[in-house]
């Protein structure tokens, strides 16, 4: 079985460029096995053949393992800390901020940042970078069209000010859209831009192995400016932050020392 698994992940990497070795095996294997059952694949070898030949199943499988759920202003109390404590702290040293939403999924996080910056007149040195491994979610993010359900967590004033209602859908306005640039990127393999004041990487590393998380946090640290801040997800914690050159300044916020 071990051998089958190894063969599967290497064939899957050849197909998708996603390296499943960097994700926690038990969780990943459970997710993959449940998906295999749903498409009646008895073993990894027949499953990989299905993925190669059936575009729709391949797509569903990517959704299943990357888990693209997102929300505007997800965990609103942390956004309040961001707005009231972290951003003013960053603005003490910098007139303009460079910001990155890493693992942005369908764009809710990046657009939340853009709306917050617009609302608070926070100057950006360049458009907000928003990246994800998955091209399909990036296409949706670029369209900026959201269902009623997707915008329900939004403060009503923001919805009114920054969206245009079209039937049951809401389209983000162009001035907010233009504040964000979406790019495809694998956080585990690709190189990073530098000079960020603020990086958000939230709800992305849940299935990464400890080793790949540490490697990623080190790369984020290199991409931050001195005193720049990394904002992580509400179930996450950075162990050995100090060794990485990071210091916790509020729950879920780490500053480069
Ligand atoms: C649950 S969503 C998080 C979206 C947003 N950050 C939030 O908190 O609402 C996780 C995203 O991470 C992306 N992701 C997973 N592995 C990745 C990798 N190696 N590189 C870049 N993005 C990755 C997935 O495609 C998915 O869109």
In helices, the fraction of residues equals: 40-55%
Helical segment tally?
11
Average pLDDT confidence is: 95
- CA-CA gap between termini: 45 Å
In spatial order, strands of the major sheet run 6-2-1-7-8-10-9
Tell me which CATH architecture of the largest domain applies here: 3-Layer(aba) Sandwich
Shape: globular
Strand content: 15-25%
The small-molecule ligands in this entry are: S-adenosylmethionine
List the helices and strands and how they pair.
Elements: H1 2-16, H2 25-38, H3 44-53, H4 55-66, H5 76-93, E1 99-102, H6 108-119, E2 128-132, H7 135-143, E3 145-147, H8 156-162, E4 163-166, E5 169-172, H9 174-177, E6 180-184, E7 196-201, H10 210-223, E8 224-232, H11 241-244, E9 246-250, E10 253-256
Parallel strand pairs: 1-2, 1-7, 2-6, 7-8
Antiparallel strand pairs: 3-5, 4-5, 8-10, 9-10
The structure holds S-adenosylmethionine.
Short recap of the structure:
The chain has helices at 2-16, 25-38, 44-53, 55-66, 76-93, 108-119, 135-143, 156-162, 174-177, 210-223, 241-244; strands at 99-102, 128-132, 145-147, 163-166, 169-172, 180-184, 196-201, 224-232, 246-250, 253-256. By secondary structure, the chain is α/β, with parallel strands linked by helices. α6 links the parallel β1 (99-102) and β2 (128-132).
Structure description:
With 257 residues, this protein is an alpha/beta fold. The protein is 46% helix and 19% strand. The chain has eleven helices and ten strands. Bound molecules: S-adenosylmethionine (SAM). The site of S-adenosylmethionine has 23 residues, from α6. S-adenosylmethionine binds next to α6.
């Amino acid at each position: 079985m071990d051998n089958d698994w190894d063969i599967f992940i290497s064939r899957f990497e050849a197909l998708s460029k996603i390296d499943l070795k960097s994700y926690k095996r038990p969780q990943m294997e459970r997710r993959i096995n449940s998906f295999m059952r749903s498409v009646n694949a008895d073993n990894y070898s027949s499953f990989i053949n299905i993925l190669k030949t059936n575009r729709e199943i391949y797509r569903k499988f990517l959704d299943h393992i990357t888990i693209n759920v997102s929300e505007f202003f997800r965990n609103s109390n942390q956004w309040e800390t961001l707005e009231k404590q972290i951003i003013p702290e960053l603005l003490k040293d910098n007139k303009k901020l460079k910001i990155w939403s890493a693992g942005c999924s369908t764009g809710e996080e990046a657009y939340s940042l853009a709306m917050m910056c617009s609302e608070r007149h926070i100057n950006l040195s360049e458009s907000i970078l928003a990246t994800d491994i998955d091209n399909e979610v990036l296409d949706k993010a670029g369209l900026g069209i959201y269902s009623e359900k997707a915008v329900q967590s939004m403060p009503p004033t923001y919805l009114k000010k920054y969206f245009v209602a079209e039937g049951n859908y809401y389209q983000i306005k162009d001035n907010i859209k233009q504040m964000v640039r979406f790019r495809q990127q694998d956080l585990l393999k690709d190189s990073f831009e530098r000079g960020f004041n603020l990086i958000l990487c939230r709800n992305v590393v849940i299935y990464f192995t400890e080793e790949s998380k540490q490697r990623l946090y080190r790369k984020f640290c290199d991409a931050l400016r001195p005193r720049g801040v990394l904002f992580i997800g509400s179930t996450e914690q950075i162990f050995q932050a100090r060794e990485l050159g990071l210091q916790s300044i509020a729950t879920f916020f780490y500053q480069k020392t």
